[in-house]
């Protein structure tokens, strides 16, 4: 069984719609810890991370928003991630997707220290590969993949000293990519499994292909799960809804295959905005997905009251 370390990341600085800072509390109320304990895992809740002290920071791109705040969160979460990696499997409860600027930095530093390659599975509607220089919206939740893959354009962020090789990154389920990001992706080695691929091939074959590469390299696997990976009809509590996402069963199958692989070493849960939820519906779905990732089988699920 796994020692799961819950780390709250109430980050709200990476986008414009307030509410993601309530995400960690929503996961706790939705029973994340009890779900994991019921599966036989041990759970340690380390509470919520606090950002480091703000420093003066600016960028030539006038659109960039909340740069000092996001840098402070990145530094704090990188430290929390590195500390947790040697003690169990950290589950970062967000918070908008800019939190991954810090969580993956910390996980990557640990992987480099133990001499194992890090792989990243990005379960998201968006590619999030902008830099500070290319973003038009200025919302830094659209930049973490650019940062963790070592792309330029991130001064004055802390240098990413253990960049994840592009070939070790898989974008899975994307369906909303702007022209600038499309041009960036066309010149990378990042594996792209968009919704067209999933429509034609299903979930299992492309995911197993990626997991085989992780296993063959004796890699560590960080999974970053965005609420908008799912279709908004089943996961409405997100400020970046994009129609045509994965279904309930497709999302659970992804988690079940990840569990069977035994490769996942860290997890982000991002972009849950409880203010936009329907009586906790999305928070409960995300907790159920974590349950599948950690070993709950289809036939273990209780029937819900009608």
What does this structure look like?
The longest helix has 19 residues, at 67-85. The chain has an 8-stranded parallel beta sheet, sandwiched between helices. Helix 3 (67-85) packs parallel to helix 4 (100-114) and helix 8 runs parallel beside helix 9. The two termini are 33 Å apart. The chain contains 10 helices and 8 strands. It has one domain (3-298): Ureohydrolase domain (Arginase, Chain A), CATH 3.40.800.10. Helix content is 35%, strand content 16%. The protein has 306 residues and is of the alpha/beta class.
How would you name the CATH homologous superfamily?
Ureohydrolase domain
Helix/strand-derived category reads alpha/beta
Task: Tell me the radius of gyration.
Answer: 18 Å
Give the terminus-to-terminus CA distance: 33 Å
CATH class: Alpha Beta
Following the backbone from N to C, one meets helices and strands in this order, namely EHHEHEHEHEHEHHEHEH
Q: What count of structural domains?
A: 1
Annotated CATH topology: Arginase, Chain A
Overall geometry comes to globular
What order do the helices and strands come in, and which of them pair?
Elements: E1 3-9, H1 23-29, H2 32-38, E2 42-48, H3 67-85, E3 89-94, H4 100-114, E4 118-123, H5 144-148, E5 169-174, H6 179-186, E6 191-194, H7 195-201, H8 204-216, E7 220-226, H9 248-261, E8 264-270, H10 281-293
Parallel strand pairs: 1-2, 1-3, 3-8, 4-5, 4-7, 5-6, 7-8
Helix pairs in contact: 3-4, 8-9, 9-10
């Amino acid at each position: 069984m796994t020692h799961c370390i819950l780390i709250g990341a109430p980050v709200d600085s990476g986008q414009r719609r307030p509410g993601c800072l309530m995400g960690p509390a929503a996961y706790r109320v939705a029973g994340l810890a009890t779900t994991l304990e019921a599966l036989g895992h041990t759970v340690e809740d380390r509470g919520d991370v606090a950002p480091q002290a703000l420093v003066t920071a600016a960028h030539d791109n006038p659109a960039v928003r909340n740069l000092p705040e996001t840098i402070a969160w990145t530094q704090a979460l990188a430290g929390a991630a590195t500390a947790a990696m040697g003690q169990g499997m950290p589950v970062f409860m967000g918070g908008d997707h800019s939190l991954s600027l810090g969580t993956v930095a910390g996980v990557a530093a640990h992987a480099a220290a133990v001499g194992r390659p890090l792989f990243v599975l990005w379960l998201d509607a968006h590619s999030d590969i902008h830099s500070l220089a290319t973003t038009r919206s200025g919302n830094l939740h659209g930049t973490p993949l650019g940062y963790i893959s070592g792309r330029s354009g991130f001064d004055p962020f802390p240098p990413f000293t253990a960049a994840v090789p592009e070939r070790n990154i898989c974008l899975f389920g994307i369906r909303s990519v702007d022209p600038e990001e499309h041009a960036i992706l066309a010149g990378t080695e990042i594996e792209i499994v968009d919704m067209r691929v999933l429509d034609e091939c299903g979930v299992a074959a492309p995911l197993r292909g990626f997991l085989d590469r992780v296993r063959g390299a004796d890699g560590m696997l960080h999974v970053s799960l965005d609420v908008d990976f799912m279709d908004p009809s089943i996961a409405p509590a997100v400020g970046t809804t994009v129609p045509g996402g994965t279904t309930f069963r497709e999302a659970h199958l992804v988690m079940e295959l990840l569990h069977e692989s035994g490769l996942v070493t860290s997890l982000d849960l991002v972009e849950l905005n409880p203010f936009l939820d329907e009586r906790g519906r999305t928070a409960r779905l995300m907790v159920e997905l974590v349950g599948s990732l950690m070993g709950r089988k289809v036939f273990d699920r209780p029937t819900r009251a009608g």
